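Protocol step 4 of 6.
Sequence for ABC transporter permease (Myxococcus xanthus) entered exactly as in the expression construct, tag removed. Do not edit the line below.
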Amino acid sequence: MSGVLSFFGAPVVMLARTVRASTRDGVPWRESLAQLHELGGRSVWLVMSGMAFFGAVLVTIANSQARRFVGNVAVLGPAYFELLIRELGPAVSALLTASRAGAAHAAELSTMSVNEQVEALEMSAGDPYADLVAPRVIAGVLGVPLLCTLGTIAATLSAAAVAQFAFGVDGRAFMDPRYVDGWDLLAAFLKAAGCGLYIPLAAAVAGLKARGGAEAVGEATTDGVVAASLGCLLIDLAVSLAFQLLRL
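Step 5 output, structure tokens:
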């Protein structure tokens, strides 16, 4: 149990140290913009292509269930669209982002750690939390919700196209927003923003504790991706349960 608490609690401690350091030393906004480009620009095609495939799979499953149970795929379309907007869109997009951006952050920071560049930064009056972690956190909070939005749009368009051309069903049946309301959008945003906050923190925890050589960099990269992915799933579950308990 203590291991689980340490696994998920370490990013929280990292966040507290980053906020304290950023309040004291300020935030390097130019580096934050560079990290936003690094996270968003290099992840956008992975997220959009992955979500396009996911949308195709989703509509295939919906079509199979519709033919088996109700015989009319248009009946299930709005329900699947709500599921995509509220649950699957932000969760799967965040996992795809964690697999690339989490690995990149962990690999970069662990390389700096094993090459003693972090110690050199501290000796030159720099702060690794303010100078290295804070820009990545800001990029994650801003970039992941944007990636989740683009990913959800890609999945929706892909689902509509597959329904139209593969199954001969009106693709607009899977873009029917009759069940989507403001609470669905709020839940999706909270999941995306929470994952955007957690992914760089989990990667930074793994990267900054790396010691040794190339083997330590590999282990830190793996640990960063695993921690970021599990954190995204935990955030998805927590937000979903909270909204269910509040009947929203």
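Step 6, annotate. The helical segments are 2-25, 29-70, 73-114, 117-123, 128-165, 182-208, 214-245.
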